[in-house]
Design brief:
Blueprint: H1 70-86, H2 90-97, H3 103-107, H4 111-118, H5 121-134, H6 157-169, H7 174-182
Helix pairs in contact: 1-5, 2-5, 6-7
Length: about 190
Amino acid sequence: MSKAAFKDKQLSSQPLKPRPRYYNEPHLSPSTIPSDVTESGHSNSPKSQELVDYSNNWSASHNKTPQITLDERREAVTQALRLSGAARDWEVFFKQVMGVDGLIYSLFPTADQRRQFETTSEYVEIQHILAEMRSRPQKRNLVNREKTKMITVRLPESLHAALMQEANDLDTSMNKLCISKLLQIIDKDLVQ
């Protein structure tokens, strides 16, 4: 068995802080900005990735659900930041914010509204808060800790090897890599 299945990153506790950016701009982390981006924000490289904000394409004409507002999106991030300070671990935060009885379901009660929100930079911000909380050391013997469940997934040997290599490259465990991937939103058309 590969050592990637058991190793963990070196972890350090650090307080969560909001990222210094405007909420109505597409999310770009410093690690994803190409080095050849000019001051005007344009890249000289034809291969650079450009993030597109699809929220402008939402319209009530093909959707009976009203468009979510910028204030609603900002409220979600503000409340998530507040909850992250009070939550003792990422599992509690996930339940309070992204769980079926959580903040996102209460602010955006319909599936269409949640799908709209999941395409915004505010949702990316909440994902970053969750990722930062997951990087904190976990205390296993907490009182009233949510029970964990185990799943078994059958996958081709080549996919398993690729995941092991990815975990090794990221200097993390296979378990943490898979949880990170499971927390991401995917297009329903990709689920067959």
